[in-house]
Design a protein that fits this description.
3 domains; Arc Repressor Mutant, subunit A; Nucleotidyltransferase, domain 5; five-stranded mixed sheet; homodimer; alpha/beta; DNA-binding
Chain lengths: 416, 416
DNA sequence: CCACTAAGTTGACTCATCCAACAAAGTAGG
DNA sequence: CCTACTTTGTTGGATGAGTCAACTTAGTGG
């Protein structure tokens, strides 16, 4: 990790320049030198190399007040991209982001993934990814990597899905299986972790070094970013917050235990709360978003039962979140999944409980916001995770001048 | 943080060598080169500089099997030391550790700190620290730093105790106040955080990059080390685990809320559980350790009430720990404070609940162990925190040859 | 006594950053 | 319109860290 070489030092400084551009936006080479603390000459040299690798470009001849105006250096859109994939219960998705953070492409296909099974899922994901990779290569862009979000317990280093209850998967070597289809080894991670990365990189909480992301789906998952990096834990299973035992007198959970947080804030609790057994919301022909639209409509119309249920869920959400806030002390808690869709009615009671229960003084512990990435957070996070490899080691991106001469004969290897 | 200079690179490599020696024990320069991936020549040069700074020394002429035997390089005891301080309700303590991790000195004085108040505490801590600093200077040792552990909410960067309920402190600028007495600015941190550092550096869980430390005192505190470094959170208030609301039908907590974890596993719960109103354990003349000895004696003797209470507490401990384990996924959970003293009776039921509730597959999530540092963990952790400055930047330690010539006239500045 | 092996040192070499001087490209004011 | 001023970006030389390869040193084993 720590550079030990001069070349490692160079790597770190290249990465540092990219980081500065990501955080502070376009700047002249002199400005970069000031921001990084490096010498002007070094800054120029670094920018030259990054330009050669297609990561930055010289933009508009900047707005100067005095003296010679500089040329702005900006992250170059379109040339170096990361691909994010997502599997979920009833859909799969793909997203392409470039280093500038712009969404190049996003596609989502509805499919019953449980019925397809792991084999079918690998086929589907492979197709989605291969199409994007081919399109990017045709565009002369370079693919920095691919990363897949899966709702379940993931062994990140091995690229294996250990357990994904909602998909019915167990011990699926997803990275290896996908690698056969797309020609490069993808990363695999939990969907909440990927979503947290997306929020950290580009969402409402962009740049916040300490944030907590909560997904509201069938289960409730958590992704934790602390000190600027994703918490992984000893075996990669952090953020399993759905089964916190919050009420010994509560209901039985799908996991077999009593009073798990999920039983009061999960999707099942929502449906149970707002709708009786023969309510149209439960129509199996409806998908998640249609149901949520229906519920939101009732809430907007002032339906008492709906509002009461949402209030109850909001409070329970606040109680559970307070535990996590006291343990992790994030600056922001981002609510994703269905929480974000119905957030308007959940946020009030949730904030009330949260603020009442957080021990840390000041308002710092109480910032609770809704994700603006909606259900796309996980895919986008995957793309960010894939891009992270280039952003921390820009030398992995191929040189566009030298390579053409020196590495041209080896092109086949890099495309394999 | 990241080195950007060659001199930053040098710093990082010096630190890397120290790290290797700390983790892998004494090695020859050639061995260090292999372990670090650096060149033999570089390794020699780095070791020479570290020797000059008093951080390492050449030890025994190593045990070789073939070829020329190397001289072992080892962390040098006694010359570069960190000082840890601790304030608690009924005692204050000081500990001195050297870079080799050996406890040079440990002293603990019983005192009613609540009665003394912040001013008295500053006096007492100042005396304890100054005595050690003077002794070390007389020994020609160099003090790398001082760090104080306080049971409460600490603003680490400002060195201010925001709130320490058990001490009755509020907004005490401890770092600044102590700096006046001892001539250097000490670090200040939460006692659980410091204890976690101690366990990470030298306790039962030494070297584990992901661990959770739980203190059993009047309150219950948590220190989290994840990915090899201490979790601090946005404002430095991580690990406030005592007030997790685990039972809506539970007892009222000192914080005013219902069913906090502390109400079932804190020291008050222990006393309530094992002893009636007029039980000798409640004799106000007894201090904590005497009470615990008494309780342990009864448990050993098979007293039914005591055993039942401990079993109940153990279970509650496991339930609460399971939440933290699911969120943080540590490899080890270390129990400190009174949990460690009575651990023999708590561990069984706690492990049972923990293993039943942890979602992560395999035995990884279930390792629950007792601290072997006992009530000294926090002070020791302070000393480790102080040493951390030198270990991450060895160039802060004064050169012993060049300094004698070049910096001799400036000696006064460095001792001020 | 002589191969053999591995440790540690030395001096030449590479390469990244720094430094200082300089050329370039604008603005402000007479 | 021209000149002083300010800031950008480049250039060539200096510093210094790490690498490499050859060499010396110091043991073991036959």
């Amino acid at each position: 990790m720590e550079p030990k070489d001069q070349i490692g030092l160079r790597r770190a400084n290249l990465a540092h320049v990219l980081e500065v551009l990501r955080v502070h936006g376009p700047h002249s080479r002199a400005g970069i030198a000031r921001l990084t603390g490096l010498n002007k000459a070094t800054s120029s040299s670094l920018v030259a190399e990054l330009t050669d690798r297609g990561l930055v470009r010289l933009g508009s001849p900047a707005t100067g007040q005095f003296g010679r105006p500089g040329h702005l250096v900006e992250l170059r859109p379109g040339t170096v991209c990361g691909i994010g994939l997502e599997v979920n219960v009833d859909y799969a998705a793909v997203a392409v982001l470039d280093v500038a953070g712009t969404l190049v492409r996003h596609r989502r296909v509805a499919r019953d993934l449980v019925a397809l099974g792991p084999d079918g899922a690998v086929d589907l994901l492979g197709e989605l990814a291969s199409a994007e990779i081919a399109a990017l290569r045709a565009d002369d862009a370079w693919v920095a990597g691919v990363s897949v979000a899966v709702p379940g317990l993931i062994d990140v280093s091995a690229g294996v899905v250990r357990l994904a209850p909602n998909l019915g998967w167990r011990e699926v070597p997803l990275a290896a299986r996908l690698a056969e289809r797309i020609g490069l080894v993808p990363g695999v991670d939990n969907d909440a972790n990927h979503s947290a990365l997306a929020e950290h990189a580009a969402g409402v909480a962009a740049g916040t070094p300490d944030l907590l992301y909560l997904t509201g789906e069938v289960g409730v998952g958590g992704g934790v970013i602390s000190g600027g990096s994703l918490l992984r834990g000893a075996t990669g299973f952090t953020g399993e917050v759905g089964h916190m035992p919050l009420d010994p007198a509560g209901e039985r959970c799908g996991c077999g235990r009593i009073g798990c947080w999920e039983t009061s804030v999960g999707l099942a609790a929502l449906l149970r709360g707002v709708a009786g057994d023969d309510d149209p919301v439960r129509d199996p022909a409806l998908d998640l978003e249609q149901r949520l639209t229906l519920i939101a409509g009732r809430a907007r119309a002032g339906d008492a039962r709906t509002l009461a249920a949402l209030h109850r869920i909001g409070s329970a959400l606040g109680v559970g979140a307070s535990i996590l806030v006291n343990v992790l002390n994030p600056a922001v808690v981002v609510l994703g999944g269905y929480f974000a869709v119905l957030g308007r009615w959940l946020l009030g009671p949730a904030r009330e409980e949260l603020c009442a229960r957080v021990l840390a003084p000041g308002p710092a512990g109480c910032e609770l916001v809704l994700s603006d990435l909606g259900f796309t957070a996980a895919v986008r996070g995957g793309a960010h995770a894939a891009l992270d490899a280039v952003l921390t080691d820009p030398t992995t991106a191929p040189s566009r001048s030298a390579t053409a001469v020196r590495q041209a004969p080896e092109q086949h290897r890099s495309t394999s």
